[in-house]
Specification:
By secondary structure, this protein is α+β, with helices and mostly antiparallel strands. The protein folds into 2 domains: 178 residues, FAD/NAD(P)-binding domain; 157 residues, 2-Layer Sandwich (D-Amino Acid Oxidase, Chain A, domain 2), CATH 3.30.9.10. It has 9 helices and 21 strands. Helix 1 runs parallel beside helix 5, helix 1 packs across helix 9 and helix 2 packs across helix 9.
């Protein structure tokens, strides 16, 4: 895409992109959930911010794209993520309240367990410590409350009534729209690094910045291969939507929560029929290596069969119901599932943001706040989000 086709929204008329005589802006590359909220928090700090994306906010190839994402506080012993999820949810609710269409559906989230394991035990302890509502529901009561589910083999469930579903693509688009309305600038352009940490090329034209945040999701290993090529693992993930029974409201969000099922260590999760798009089901197991530019985004026969088999076993009313939609996206995983929020190790003024690892969307507001504080104030986040903590062997421990 040439520079003459560049789309600019916001305060660009007062913010030249090249040859700037006035102070350079902070540039955020990548308008996914992490980049969009970083730009917004930097704007709140009074910074001139330019947000750049090569295809648009939460586009079809982005890890932040697609229909819906779960927001939950159940994280086992990883209390830091429970705290981040709760703080982020307040931001999402405020944004949803101002949006023409809802961005948050408070359907609640149900985690199903075959037995009491450390993850469940630790989640209960964290919720008690933080004063977060969490209902521990035995098998018989689960069946009475949600008769559309088959709880065979499930000993108990943990239900979080205050969490639920975020409408992903629309939520990111709304975040960017509000950012622009409040004085930020968004540009549709392709960005590539230059030899300077505070410089880059936008559609081949040089631009200078006070600082640059590279929030490129699955493209991070390509942009910085020497630093991240062996530390960010991009995997292929398959999602399906199934048509609920005609005239049956039991699969609506008013009657069915978001859910996650520890199926003998193989986690499946999904949502009720949100806004008429169908019953969503996905498998959280990391897929094969995936290229976000060239990867085939058609559902595999094996993946479709696996999702159908699990859906029909756990939700008998879906037996024989047609698939309405398939989607192939990608996770961009760190070695253990922790996020990456840090400075570039050698380019002064450059920052690295990513490692969403399949669970990052809900945390967008808090991740953006942490990166903004690092860039604007020099306040480093928890050490587990540092580049130094990222290994070259994939062994996820954050679930």
């Amino acid at each position: 895409m040439g520079a003459t086709r560049r789309t600019v929204l916001g305060a660009a008329a007062a913010l030249p992109l090249v040859g700037c005589s006035r102070p350079a802006p902070i540039i955020v590359v990548g308008a996914g959930v992490f980049g969009a909220w970083t730009a917004e928090h930097l704007r709140r700090k009074g910074k001139a911010v330019l947000l750049v994306d090569q295809m648009g906010p939460a586009n079809a190839r982005a890890s932040s794209g697609g229909e819906s994402r779960m927001t939950r506080g159940t994280y086992g012993r990883d209390e830091i993520y429970t705290r981040m999820a709760r703080a982020s949810l307040e931001e999402w609710k405020r944004l949803s309240d101002r949006s023409a269409l809802p961005l948050f559906h408070d359907a609640g989230v149900l985690f199903c367990f075959q037995e009491m394991i450390d993850y469940a035990r630790d989640s209960i302890a964290v919720h008690e410590r933080l004063g977060l509502p969490l209902q521990n529901i035995a098998n018989a009561a689960l069946g009475q409350r949600w008769p559309q589910m088959n709880f065979e083999g499930i000993e108990f469930g943990l239900f979080e009534p205050e969490f639920g579903a975020l409408m992903a693509r629309r939520a990111v688009e709304e975040t960017v729209a509000r950012f622009v309305e409040q004085g930020g600038t968004y540009v549709l352009a392709h960005a590539t690094p230059s030899e300077s940490g505070r410089g880059l090329l936008l559609d081949g034209a040089p631009a200078d910045a006070e600082a640059i945040v590279w929030a490129c999701g699955p493209w991070l290993p390509k942009v910085f291969p020497a630093v991240l090529g062996e530390r960010i693992f991009v995997t292929r993930q398959e999602v399906a939507f199934i048509a609920p029974p005609d005239g049956d409201d039991s699969f609506e969000a008013s009657h069915l929560p978001g859910w996650a099922d520890f199926n003998g260590g193989d986690l499946y999760y999904g949502f009720p029929n949100l806004e008429g798009r169908g019953f969503k089901i996905a498998r959280d197991t990391h897929g094969e290596h995936f290229d976000p530019d060239t990867g085939d985004r058609r559902m595999s026969d094996t993946g479709a069969a696996s999702l159908r088999a699990f859906a029909e076993r756990r939700f008998p009313g879906l037996a024989g119901r047609p698939f309405t939609e398939f989607r192939v996206c990608q996770y961009e995983n760190s070695s253990n599932g922790d996020f990456l929020i840090d400075r570039h190790p050698s380019l002064e003024g450059a920052y690295l943001l990513g490692g969403g690892s399949g669970h990052g969307f809900k945390h967008g507001p808090e991740v953006g706040r942490m990166m903004a504080e690092l860039v604007a104030d020099g306040t480093a986040p928890d050490a587990r989000f540092s580049l130094a903590s990222k290994q070259t062997v994939q062994a996820r421990s954050v679930l």
